[in-house]
Write a structure and sequence with these properties.
Length: 75
């Protein structure tokens, strides 16, 4: 269980840094959040926990939507 746990920490670090970047109006925050979401999808699959992969997928969708809205406004 060490690998999924360590991977989960990497995912959360990516999400936290992404949130900080978004608070600073930096669009790279969206990509870091998406990376963290994908990591949580993987952790959910590795551990067999549907709550992790389901919500990871859900949040990834929201982040993709947010990134597209952000880019549309910036254009």
């Amino acid at each position: 269980m060490i690998f999924p746990d360590a991977l989960g920490h990497v995912g959360y670090i990516s999400i936290v840094v992404g949130l900080i970047l978004l608070a600073r109006q930096n669009k790279w925050g969206w990509l870091l959040r998406m990376f963290g979401d994908v990591i949580w999808l993987i952790v959910g699959i590795l551990t067999g926990m549907t709550s992790l992969w389901f919500w990871g997928f859900f949040f990834l969708g929201i982040d993709i939507w947010g990134y597209r809205k952000w880019n549309f406004k910036a254009s």
